[in-house]
Amino acid sequence: MGIIAGGCLAGWLAGACGLGSILGELTGDIAKGLTGAFGCLAAAFSVALVGMKATEAVGRNPESAGKVLVQSILGMALAEAIAFYALFLS
Description:
This protein is an all-alpha fold and 90 residues long. It has a single domain, classed as Up-down Bundle (F1FO ATP Synthase), CATH 1.20.20. It contains four helices and no strands. The chain has helices at 3-13, 19-27, 30-60, 65-89. The model is unreliable at 1-14 (pLDDT under 50).
């Protein structure tokens, strides 16, 4: 594993709490670090909300579990895209 890959892995393992300080140290700008951290936090909340509502929908109508699963996976993937936009475009 190279130095860059090890650094990326260490950054991901640090979690969302230390993400702002890690990005701020890498770029030298705390505003970019906070933008990335809040973007990842928003993505985490939106994935949790999609999961909560999918569970609620299956609880109300168990026969639609397959359709709800597909829609919730798509919704979670789009919500996770927000995290990548926040990390790479900030």
